[in-house]
Amino acid sequence: MEAAGEDEFMGGAELDLAQLAREEYSATNNGVPRPLSPRLPSLSPACKREGGSLHPAPLPYLSPKTPDPPAPNQEKEKEPDARGAAILICSTLPTKLDMASAVTISSVSAQAALVSKPRNHGSTSFSGLKASSSSISFESGTSFLGKTASLRASGTPRIVPKAKSGSQISPQASYKVAVLGAAGGIGQPLGLLIKMSPLVSELRLYDIANVKGVAADLSHCNTPAQVMDFTGPAELAECLKGVDVVVIPAGVPRKPGMTRDDLFNINAGIVKSLIEAVADNCPEAFIHIISNPVNSTVPIAAEILKQKGVYNPKKLFGVSTLDVVRANTFVAQKKNLSLIDVDVPVVGGHAGITILPLLSKTRPSVSFTDEETEQLTKRIQNAGTEVVEAKAGAGSATLSMAYAAARFVESSLRAMAGDPDVYECTYVQSELTELPFFASRVKLGKDGVESIISSDLEGVTEYEAKALEALKAELKASIEKGIEFAHKQQGAAASV
Ligand SMILES: NC(=O)c1ccc[n+]([C@@H]2O[C@H](COP(=O)([O-])OP(=O)(O)OC[C@H]3O[C@@H](n4cnc5c(N)ncnc54)[C@H](O)[C@@H]3O)[C@@H](O)[C@H]2O)c1
Ligand SMILES: O=C(O)C[C@H](O)C(=O)O
């Protein structure tokens, strides 16, 4: 990770970011912005245009390296509101501003995000920003880390008209995200990453225990999201009301020698009860399921939502992003490629051989020997076990999972905000194969899955075609196990 010195990107403490943002905006041509900065980074390097050019995400702080210049974005952006209506400036600021493009938010808009809530650990001002002035300026992206931030920030959000507010341009920090299982190994670092998102106004943390301390701790970070804690089933409904995204990493992790399916007996019940609460309190939210076995917990969730009459297949996601993150990393290492450039679609499911990286579809185009294909495929499929064994009984992947889950949250929020160019691999209800659920690349939109990308499955190699056939029996069994569990539970409830 490249470190940027303070002076390099801040131009000194007095740099007026809002002014620079206005200059940047005025540098656009008749409202058509210049191409997004080639320095824009991404927590979501895999979020691309279908054509394959990189599309930057607004979470810059984890960007490993400068990506290739993306295709020019010809979207017409709105004129900044003279009264200071929230605008999010992104993109092609000169190098100094790559580290800190500006966001301005009207005081009205900012205050809207400051509604006082019980147990609110957030500050009463905009996390130390100038909430009382008519316009707040703050550095976007890594700038939340402060002027001395050493992470290289390249991603900067762009002006995105938020769907909720019709023709008005709304502040970016306007989404509410709940994490269920927030005090756990994944939940804690995930909470931190979401707290750093410029798109989030409220971060609601729920767990059955130990969540107060996590919330108090996170709330000291001077970023916009207000942190709220909720403990135990009695507070779950309150946690969920009005949220835009619910992320569920609640449940037990593997120990060495276990399969993900060995977690079914405990985690199926946990997911069931949490989804019932989601159905009752925020049926419109995007639901991101991390709890294993994902191949079964997502079908369980679908059945529970159906039983409650609120199932929307476009908004229920099994988080398989970590498989993509790993595939990208391992391929980049093997082929000596820039990490940020590599994008490997991973399809199927999220366990053992059901994890199928389509190496032949790697972007940029790269060739593999048969031996490399075999070795990389196996490593990606066993990467979870690699971590479980290395942790030797202390759990499974938590940090890389939090990174992957934060990327998926960010992609979802960008899609909600109207970004027309968001793609992720995820395990969803699908007609791509004969299986009712299947992980593949999907295009995300403000209402969830906009389309499922079928092209990755076309023209695959013989190795991939065989692996695809081979995974189906296991994936089918896991799906059916989940559905059967949900039906039995319903039957049991009905007979009481
Ligand atoms: N999808 C993936 O790629 C992926 C990757 C890594 C881990 N996982 C899975 O994520 C899950 C969590 O892993 P972890 O390492 O964070 O485990 P963990 O044990 O560290 O944390 C789990 C948290 O869930 C909480 N919890 C338990 N029951 C709950 C309930 N009913 N309501 C709310 N919270 C509850 C626990 O109190 C704990 O804080 C595991 O099932 C693991 O297998 C999935
Ligand atoms: O391997 C596990 O049990 C956790 C997770 O599914 C992973 O892929 O790391």
From TrEMBL:
Q: List GO molecular-function terms, semicolon-separated.
A: L-malate dehydrogenase (NAD+) activity
Supply the alphabetized keyword list: NAD, Oxidoreductase, Tricarboxylic acid cycle
Q: Which reaction does it catalyse?
A: (S)-malate + NAD(+) = oxaloacetate + NADH + H(+)
Query: Is Lipid metabolism included in the keywords of this UniProt record?
Result: no
Database matches in Pfam families: Ldh_1_C (PF02866), Ldh_1_N (PF00056)
Spans annotated as Disordered: 21-82
Picking any one GO biological process from the record gives: tricarboxylic acid cycle
What InterPro entries does the annotation carry?
A: Lactate/malate_DH_C, Lactate/malate_DH_N, Lactate_DH/Glyco_Ohase_4_C, Malate_DH_type1, NAD(P)-bd_dom_sf
- Judged by the first EC level, this protein's enzyme class is oxidoreductase
Q: Per the record, what is one GO cellular component?
A: mitochondrion
In short, the EC number is: 1.1.1.37
Asked whether the UniProt record includes NAD among its keywords, one would answer yes
Coiled-coil regions in this chain? none
Q: State the similarity comment.
A: Belongs to the LDH/MDH superfamily. MDH type 1 family.
Name the record gives this protein: malate dehydrogenase
